[in-house]
Give the backbone structure.
Amino acid sequence: MLETIEKLLVLQDRDRKIHRVQQELAQIAPERETLRNRASSTQTQLDAAKNRVKQIESERKRLELEVESKKTQIEKYANQQLQTRKNEEYRALAHEIETCKADIMKIEDSEIVLMEQTEVAQKEVIRATLAANEAKKLAETLIAELGQREENFKKELAALQQDRAALASAVDESARNRYDRLLKSKGDNAVVGIEHGVCGGCHMKLQQQLIVTCQSQKEIVTCSTCGRILYYSRDMVLTGGE
């Protein structure tokens, strides 16, 4: 195999490893954000459960004050009854007292409902607290692991890029420039083999003269369709299938 091709293949292998590590690094930030969002979601549920308890307690206190207000009115009406001498006024005050007592019974029924709701809401707070604590602990553990992975990938990437620079400098400048252009346009599949008479990159049939020139291994040959650099090795089958 042409020495320049051999060097380009090694360089391409390094570029593929660099690309793989860069992809791994690119996935870490979204993974970290996903973990934080999960923990945040459980915390939001916990906050909502606590707010529900507060709302119920606030409503219970409001009803308690309303009951006290009704009882005060009953005392007021009872005192007025003692002071009046008119039967009609006495009966009107009695009616107001009964109305207040009926209102108190309705309010107390509502308080019982709220007590039941409080019990359910407090259980939800306990459940949500456990879920939020577990999610937070898990997120912290996994985020720490992601941080370590990220650090390892950064070190690996730095070593690969340093190695890549050394490999690139050993390649003929003209061939390297051509390869770099292909790397940008075709990705890390710039140098490809010939198999069954087709380009290993675009998979288009190659002219026979192009295959012969590549097989001679005396110069760099490129695909006439996609422009990728072609290479040949003895284990490749050059002829197309019947």
Summary: The first strand starts at residue 191 and ends at 195. The mean pLDDT is 94. Residues 87-169 form the longest helix (83 residues).
